[in-house]
Amino acid sequence: MKKNILVIHTGGTISMQVHAETGGVILSEANPLLKEIDKIQQFAHITEVEAFNLPSPHITPQKMLMLVSTINEQLANQQFDGIVITHGTDTLEETAYFLELATNYTLPIVLTGAMRSSNEVGSDGVYNLMAAVRVASTDEAGEKGVLVVLNDEIHTATSVTKTHSSSVSTFQSPQYGPIGIVTKTAVYFHHAPLSRTYLPIRSIDKKVAMFKIYAGMEGELLEMIPALGYDGVVLEGLGQGNVPPALMTVIQTLLDKKIPIVLVSRCFNGVAEASYAYEGGGKMLQKMGVRFEHGLSGQKARIKLLLELCAQE
Ligand SMILES: NC(=O)C[C@H](N)C(=O)O
């Protein structure tokens, strides 16, 4: 039996086209994806909603919270078996992880996008939408948290990241790999996430900054944090979670001011942990009160700290 799937559009390349004269990729008022839905109807009964039509660099945490409201309103009015959200790929992982934390539905919620716009040769939009609808239509996709489906792979919102600026195989889960695949005839899951965090929020009224740590970094930028009104900081530390010694004084000052500092590794793989005991090493940072966030990228750790701070209100 066909499932009832809600498709929420938010914009991105999947809803864009190449302008005939300029060659630039643009959003048009009439989302070209809306015309393509007939090709997907064979897999599920589709209800479409256009939440917004934005390039994903224009998506903010406020917009992500609006998306949560859209989902809540739709589910309050009608029974759906799964939800698919189309989104630009640049910040897709942040919206996916925001939804992972801010919702706790057991029905499948699947994000998808495209690397090639609707009128480009080899456009991957309709195909990815179809694959996402097929995944959202399976019972197995429920209770696995928010999922991301592109290029025939199923990833969790927690581990997926955009790894290539233009390749259609850009979405990868460096640490753990995909949790399933989509083939021509079926959807297969290989494993499932172990746990899920729920951080319900009503508004976004906190600010969290993020810095990639680099060799020779000085403390001046971090010193600006309290004056600029930031409520928390995420540091993408070196290696296993270390920083240059020049940052230690300002880190202590921020912690004394009760501004939480979360540390992740700037490495593509592995986790930040308190290993090194030299000046600026992870052991010293942990002793000072810096929090280590295991297995999250900087951008995901930033979303999590933001929601934690907003949830405390
Ligand atoms: N492939 C894409 O969707 C990239 C686009 N710049 C966006 O994120 O909106």
TrEMBL record:
Record domain L-asparaginase N-terminal: where: 4-192
Keywords: Hydrolase
Pfam families recorded: Asparaginase, Asparaginase_C
CDD domains reported in the protein's UniProt record: L-asparaginase_II
UniProt keyword Zinc-finger present: no
Catalyzed reaction equations: L-asparagine + H2O = L-aspartate + NH4(+)
EC supergroup of this enzyme: hydrolase
Official protein name in the record: asparaginase
